[in-house]
């Protein structure tokens, strides 16, 4: 009974399990381990045992010549009538040619690692056979297409894919499915005459139980560690990246002890070449956990599951924000969103509008970007001839454009005192006067506002009207910074990655676990906006479908003020502009992001200040 239980456990886990006794003899070899090491194959196709013979059509897709292909050299390709004096080890090679048949002209294409595009393809006819060979660096996928069928082989760092057609009848007599495995079918070995093993539908396998572990696997660091464990001279290995038959695996070796003696060992394997599958499994699991948490909190707070599809997060602070936002959206009161810059106030405002007035327009107004002397005309519009330069037919303002919907006044603390009186009147009476008009304009507008300032402090300093404060401060919603909701970082980074890939019109990419770990160790002073910038750069830099820590660059706080080489080069105008940009950035940093304080420190007019912000791309 105990033996059956152990067998059942080893078969249901996702990792490969290999057990050996004290003498190194294999006593258990799980199905997953057999798939990883090539004992059984999952392709569903078959071919008998054999070897490559003269006249056979050999198709090769090698993403790094000489690495994980048995030590191929440029000279070995002469067997296919390919002689290229510029070919070097490490190059990407696509080749199709008749084996040891000098009179047949081959198909051939090569690139260096530095000049290879994201997808390198070779297509054409070799004899009467149409073939297509591809190295996809984005997906880390090698593909050989022949007779209308695709033969795929994924790789982590390097791999050589091989398909062989019988020279007599054109049937596929060999295809590579796992690369170098227990089968010991390296590309070079097969070209040198080594016979290959048969493949079938996955039901037949090598007899590995009872075999010597050290005969099955080529000598490497893994076999050396296993030898030390079995001899009692080595401790366990836990989750380390080691090669086994030239395939990178995540390996653990645990000794089996009885009365202090080593009676054997257990080897646990995770195939890192299937990283895309592991990431999908991890992502699915995290999504299910997050969704379960989200549904539970939504149920307790009575928030529909689809209420905030684009306001990402399921941490307790964000669940509280969503609950209050849902309540506020169903009411008709004015709402003000507060929190640091970059926390997602604009996105939440759109979500509230969608819930409360989905059929009406949503007009977003950045109050800090409107010059002081144009504020009234921009917000409330004007009639023809109201001032010099006015359009003859007049112009509607933002309030009229938002009629029947929502107006979102972002950075409302930047509204000049002269316009605050008119805004107060519009909020109270749902009507206003265009600049130069004698008759009022009635509107049905819901007002949302946002600020990263302390408005009550601004009231005390005489910069913001107290009566306007109370009018807009009916329902206040504080959005916490990212550092206070760090558990949302995975969902946010995944959502941003998907959005940016769609914007770039490129295949989807995923963050590796170590990439997410790197993101978790940053404090994110710029909040979600900063995270979006980091993800956007990583998407652009990454050459594969998996974003690694090396693709992520996070600028340390204050690093942007360091003096680069361009400070001392270029024209006088360029150097002056750089000095001006540095002064503005330093003033904003010293003022904690408060633009009014920065303007006061720099002694610059508001219109000029915001013009320079736009010029230098400073948010």
From TrEMBL:
Keyword Methyltransferase tagged: no
InterPro entries named among the record's database cross-references: AAA+_ATPase (IPR003593), AAA_lid_NorR (IPR058031), Homeodomain-like_sf (IPR009057), P-loop_NTPase (IPR027417), Sigma_54_int (IPR002078), Sigma_54_int_dom_ATP-bd_1 (IPR025662), Sigma_54_int_dom_ATP-bd_2 (IPR025943), Sigma_54_int_dom_CS (IPR025944)
Domain Sigma-54 factor interaction: 311-540
Entry keywords, A to Z: ATP-binding, DNA-binding, Nucleotide-binding, Transcription, Transcription regulation
Origin: domain of life: Bacteria
Pfam families to which the protein is assigned, alphabetical: AAA_lid_14 (PF25601), Sigma54_activat (PF00158)
PANTHER family attached to this UniProt entry: TRANSCRIPTIONAL REGULATORY PROTEIN, TRANSCRIPTIONAL REGULATORY PROTEIN RTCR
Official protein name in the record: Sigma 54-interacting transcriptional regulator
Organism encoding this protein: Flavonifractor hominis
Organism classification: Bacteria, Bacillati, Bacillota, Clostridia, Eubacteriales
């Amino acid at each position: 009974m105990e033996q059956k239980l152990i067998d059942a456990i080893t078969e249901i886990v996702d990792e490969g399990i290999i057990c050996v006794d004290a003498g190194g003899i294999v006593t258990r070899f799980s199905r997953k381990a057999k798939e990883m090491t090539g004992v059984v194959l999952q392709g569903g196709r078959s071919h008998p045992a054999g070897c490559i013979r003269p006249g056979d059509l050999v198709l090769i897709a090698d993403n790094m010549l000489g690495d994980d292909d048995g030590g191929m050299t440029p000279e070995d390709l002469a067997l296919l009538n390919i002689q290229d004096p510029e070919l070097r080890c490490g190059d990407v090679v696509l080749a199709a040619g008749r084996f040891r048949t000098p009179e047949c002209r081959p198909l051939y294409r090569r690139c260096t690692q530095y000049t290879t595009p994201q997808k390198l393809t070779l297509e054409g006819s070799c004899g009467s056979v149409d073939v297509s060979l591809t190295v996809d660096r984005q997906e880390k996928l090698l593909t050989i297409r022949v007779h209308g069928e695709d033969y795929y082989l994924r790789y982590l760092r390097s791999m050589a894919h091989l398909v062989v057609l019988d020279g007599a009848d054109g049937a596929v007599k060999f295809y590579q499915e796992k690369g170098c495995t227990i089968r010991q079918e390296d590309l070079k070995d097969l070209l040198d005459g080594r016979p290959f093993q048969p493949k079938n539908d996955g039901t037949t396998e090598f007899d590995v139980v009872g075999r010597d572990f050290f005969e099955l696997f080529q000598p490497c660091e893994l076999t050396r560690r296993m030898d030390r464990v079995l001899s009692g001279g080595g401790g366990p290995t836990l989750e380390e990246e080691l090669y086994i038959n030239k395939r990178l695996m995540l390996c653990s070796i645990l000794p089996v002890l009885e009365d202090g003696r080593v009676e054997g060992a257990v080897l646990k394997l995770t195939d890192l070449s299937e990283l895309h599958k592991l990431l999908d499994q991890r992502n699915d699991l995290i999504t299910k956990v997050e969704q379960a948490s989200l549904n539970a909190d939504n149920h307790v707070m009575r928030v529909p599951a689809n209420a905030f599809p684009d306001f990402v997060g399921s941490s307790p602070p964000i669940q509280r924000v969503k609950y209050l936002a849902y309540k506020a959206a169903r009411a008709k009161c004015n709402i003000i969103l507060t929190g640091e810059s970059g926390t997602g106030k604009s996105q939440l405002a759109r979500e509230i509008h969608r819930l409360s007035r989905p059929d009406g327009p949503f007009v977003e107004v950045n109050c800090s970007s409107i010059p002081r002397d144009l504020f009234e005309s921009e917000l409330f519009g004007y009639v023809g001839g109201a001032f010099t330069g006015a359009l003859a037919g007049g112009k509607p303002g933002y309030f009229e454009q938002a009629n029947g919907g929502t107006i979102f006044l972002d950075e409302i603390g930047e509204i000049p005192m002269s316009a605050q009186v008119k805004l107060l009147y519009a909020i109270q009476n749902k009507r206003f006067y265009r600049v130069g008009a004698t008759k009022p304009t009635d509107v049905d507008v819901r007002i949302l506002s946002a600020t990263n300032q302390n408005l009550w402090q601004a009231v005390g300093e005489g910069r913001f009207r107290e009566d306007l404060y109370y009018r807009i401060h009916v329902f206040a919603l504080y959005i916490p910074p990212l550092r206070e909701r760090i558990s949302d970082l995975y969902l946010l980074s995944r959502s941003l990655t998907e959005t940016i890939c769609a914007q770039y019109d490129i295949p989807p990419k995923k963050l590796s676990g170590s990439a997410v770990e790197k993101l978790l160790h940053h404090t994110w002073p710029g909040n979600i906006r900063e995270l979006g910038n980091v993800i956007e750069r990583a998407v652009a830099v990454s050459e594969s479908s998996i974003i690694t820590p090396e693709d992520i660059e996070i600028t340390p706080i204050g690093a942007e003020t360091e003096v680069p080489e361009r400070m001392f080069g270029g024209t006088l105008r360029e150097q002056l502009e750089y000095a001006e940009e540095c002064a503005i950035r330093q003033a904003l940093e010293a003022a904690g992001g408060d633009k009014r304080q920065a303007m006061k420190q720099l002694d610059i007019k508001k219109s000029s200040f915001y013009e320079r912000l736009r010029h230098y791309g400073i948010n």
